[in-house]
Amino acid sequence: MLVTVVVPPAPIIALDDAKAHLRVDHADEDALIAGLVEVATAWLDGPDGWLGRSLGEQVLETDFSVNLDPDDRVYPCPPATGLLDETPDPESGTVTVRWRAGYPVVDGRSTVPAPIRHAILLMVGHLYGSRDAVTTTAAQPAELPLGVQALLAPYRIWG
């Protein structure tokens, strides 16, 4: 099922939070850090993301068969938070549906579960500290036992 992002997701990690995680107290690398947050979030979020779910609030669109009862629709990329629009296309036998998805922002803060937010911060820390595609150190890299995948696994939509 093809899912299109109509309105991109709202940010879920504030620059100040990322800087605090990295222990950066200057503005010299704000653009770099903001870009790393965007990269880490994009790897997880939305129709193309590893999690298979929507993180930041966004608007998605897909087509369903006109023969499918609206109550039987399964909206991809949960959480779905509200139906916005339905446009039937009798020629193709489909209805194009737009809906709001993602975790809401409450009092200016994202409600994305803490393990997902922390996994994004771990990814940002890794990208910030490893700015080359290849490592040349003698130490063998190892995944953190309770690292990114362990934090994210309960939230991933499988299949």
TrEMBL record:
Source domain of life is: Bacteria
Tell me which InterPro entries the record gives. Phage_gp6-like_head-tail (IPR021146), Phage_HK97_gp6-like (IPR006450)
Supply the name of the protein. Phage gp6-like head-tail connector protein
